Amino acid sequence: MSEFTLSKDADGVATITWDVPGKTMNVMSFDGLSQLEACIDQALADDEIKGVVITSGKEGSFAGGMDLNLLAVMKEEAGDEPARGLFEGTMKMHALLRKIELAGMDLKTKKGGKPIATALPGTAAGIGMELPLSTHRIFAAENPKAKYGLPEIMVGIFPGAGGTTRMVRKVGAIAAAPLLLEGKMLDVKKAKGAGYVDEIAADPVAAAKEWVLNASGADLVKPWDAKGYKMPGGAPYHPAGFMNFVGASAMVHGKTQGAFPAAKALLSAVYEGALVDFDTALKIEARWFTSVLMNPSSGAMIRSLFINKEALEKGAVRPKDIPDQRVQKLGVLGAGMMGAGIALVSAQAGIEVVLVDRDQEAADKGKAYTESYLDKGMKRGKVTAEKKEAMLARITATPDLDALKGCDLIIEAVFEDPAVKAEMTKKVEAVIPEDCIFASNTSTLPITGLAEASSRPEQFIGIHFFSPVEKMFLVEIIKGKETGPRAVAKALDYVRQIKKTPIVVNDARFFYANRCIIPYVNEGARMITEGVSPVLIDNAARQLGFPVGPIQLTDETSIDLGAKIARATKAAMGNEYPESPADDMIFWMEDLGRLGRKSNAGFFDYDDKGKRTGYWKGMQDKYPLLDDQPDLIEVQERLMFAQVLEAVRALEEGVLEDIREGDVGAVLAWGFAPWSGGPLSWLDIIGTPYAAERCDQLSAAYGERFACPDLLREMAAKGQTFYGRFNPDAASAA
Questions:
Q1: pLDDT confidence of 733, banded at 50, 70, 90?
Q2: Residue 364: enclosing H or E segment and its boundaries?
């Protein structure tokens, strides 16, 4: 079936319509490229056609990007030379878009071409934005839901179908840098200001046709094809341009710490491309694009942050044969920060919410969190008064448990104490319907133990949100020993309703995310007790791509929380609890009242406004700095292995049932080195034989916490990879 079709009207304007069958949004495929080129060739060769409008057959959207299978086809066609296949395939895309841009004009005089415009009914991303950028005029609909941009950097690549080169030449390196390097999707007004869109129209197709019929020859020549073109802001060899590129380089390295290959490749493509003519710049862009695609980091990021994330959001691990379980009425127990956040995102999704706390004042305070959030949105023009009123009307704040009658899902977010949670479970189950699913938002307490207070353990499950709820993308769903499939389906359908990404894990202390995060922060604290500089520790983590280092993370989440978790874990494990100097340090800080950011004193000093002013020097009074600080790589590998070995153990013990959830969960929950694709992908990048060998070295130097898990040892001996052995696609096919 055709993805691109051409029609022409009586006025001589041809319309090329992009409409991929069976897709809610267009994506560019290998066949699609061939069909688009055939349509363009037909339009340019037909003397009756005066110009072309390219648009979409999808209501409210133009295109969502490229079918990533296209990259696989490029590689496969090249056989033993995948880089050549990727480069030549990319250059074919460049040639097609350049054909559209030149539109049949004489290459020397730049005359005689046919005007080609794009009419965007809505969202255009990736190659769905690069294609319009190659046309002569871009018209966008007045669609408030539409988003425009080049978000490729978010999945480990960069715009490689001419988007990088065209945007830099259109608006200059400094203006293009944040668009390309941050990958933000913009609404239509901001997209026009950024240069993605030329005109906004009520009927973009009609406006585009009118423009095509009235366009002059000069309207068809892109600035970079015109004589005397000068790059906005200056080229690298111009004094002003040189400083711009220095600034862009500093910005990139400041934000990425050199950890993301795609960002460095993008900057190189921009700089080197700006030194040469446009067509040579496209070739340079294609070379760097190929280089990134050949980097294992790119494949891992695409797999985790695009393919696997999307699969989980679409229900890849949802129990089969369970009917739709979307939530109609939600009860939230506890109106503190977590409960208030859960109420907010649920009301945002159109769900009726009953927010319960001990008294009316506490419940109202929780609802006020949503009102404050909406007020901020109104100031930014993102929320209307009508939307605010409708959202607040969905939340009923009350101390009355009887208001929970009719709820089909309860999420308990009360004090992290088993006795308190057990009491609430019994009280609420006496009120709610028999088929209502009960979930606990606990972050550390085993679900199986909490379910003992329930008369319906098969309907009891864990739904663990991360704070702040409205900003964090991941939700961890925990199955207790008796949790039934309907409860799992209910939790997954709810998470999909609120537009977050779920992972499902089996019950264990700390579940999955906290199981890996805690060793990360503990390793950082342990290094301080050894005399390692906290500056080195945090910067080592940031240069691995973590958003914050373990020392700063502890201050942000609060030191007394760490102390509380350590005590609770020690009480539960008894003699099996591994003693750690990190605990001693945390208890010492707690005794001093240095509880982190919330107390304006922790591992950092803070000013009166709560801004960090530097690391607290009092640490070195108790734990003097080593004269000879350890090697950066040694610090980094301690921080990495402390986490990834817990991920391996979670898989080994059956806490993780699907490696996709291990990787996606790690990146979204605590920002695990996104460039790596996640802990299990990272082990595949460095190789299991090296990982096992490094475990032996680290455990000999620092202790049994780095002991190589049996699973990793076995895989190393066989030369296996995690995605080779535990490939979920292969398992489902089998």
A1: very low
A2: helix 360-379
